[in-house]
Write a structure and sequence with these properties.
The chain is α+β, with helices and mostly antiparallel strands. The chain contains nine helices and 14 strands.
């Protein structure tokens, strides 16, 4: 089976202080976007899985896909093994959810191949990752609690994005650890209305800037070029801006000549997961 699985953008992100759980409660409006990893999954006759990320030995040794398979074997009767190859185009440590998207796609595909019922979202968030249920659901959604409460959210019409991924990444763990250390202090959060029902904001932005001070100058320099507001997705480091048309986004992209991992014009997708072949 060959599949492609998308990245996401957080149009907003509210972080709640952790309580008894080591996980944090969040509330976030997330949209799938047209940037994909491609994954091939085949059954094998060995007694072990083979997971290979092209050109990435670290992820080949341990990734969210490894965690997803462990979760399936722990919570279902899965007894088959697989050869899995990943062509990774979604940058890591970028707030785009690439690892969670990969894990969700593998869980969905294997559940179909082996006629399995997936574990509950609460189990998946604890054992694999808090963004994984969003990608299993696969559509624009309001994500709550530990990431295990998913409410489909309809955004009418197209949304076009210019996304800019800087050369530096940000660790989600580092951002949440800093949130815990600063949770009794005020963190500046600006909110910008997109429509009557949607505000754009991110509780993690100021934390990201504290961890990576270069984020502030990077963001401000591009905003000056574009004369347009940029926002950060997830725990960073990707920045994005929203446009009414693809042409406007492409024109904005042509103005940027700055060192980065990726600059891309893309749009809101209806679904995050697509099978390319059986």
């Amino acid at each position: 089976m060959k599949i492609k699985t998308s990245a996401k953008l957080n149009l907003n992100l509210a972080i709640k202080n952790s309580e008894k759980s080591s996980l944090h409660r969040i509330e976030s409006l997330m949209v799938p976007i047209g940037l994909y990893d491609e994954i091939t999954i085949d059954r094998n006759i060995k007694e072990a899985d083979s997971i290979v990320f092209e050109d990435d030995l670290v992820l080949s040794n341990f990734s969210t896909i490894h965690k997803a398979l462990f979760c399936l074997r722990k919570n279902t009767n899965l007894d088959k093994f697989f050869d899995i190859r990943v062509n990774k185009y979604i940058p890591v440590e970028a707030g785009l959810g690439g690892g969670s998207s990969d894990a969700a796609a593998v869980m969905l595909s294997i559940s179909k191949l082996c006629d399995l019922e997936l574990p509950s979202f609460s189990i998946i968030t604890k054992e694999v990752g808090s963004d994984v249920p969003f990608f299993i659901n696969g559509k624009t959604a309001l994500v709550k609690n530990m990431g295990d409460e998913i409410e489909d959210y309809k955004i009418a019409g197209d949304m076009f994005f210019l996304i800019i991924v800087p050369t530096f990444g940000l660790s989600t763990k580092a951002v949440f650890d800093l949130w815990d250390r600063l949770k009794n202090k005020d963190i500046a959060v600006e909110s910008f209305p997109l429509t009557s029902g949607i505000n754009i904001f991110n509780h993690a932005l100021e934390l990201a800037i504290k961890i990576k001070p270069e984020m502030k100058s990077f963001k401000e320099s591009i905003e000056k070029i574009l004369d347009k507001r940029l926002f950060m997705t997830g725990t960073g480091s990707t920045l994005f801006s929203i446009f009414d048309s693809e042409e406007d986004a492409v024109e904005a992209k042509s103005k940027i000549n700055i060192d980065s991992r990726l600059i891309l014009v893309t749009k809101k997708n209806d679904y995050s997961y697509k099978e390319l072949s059986d």
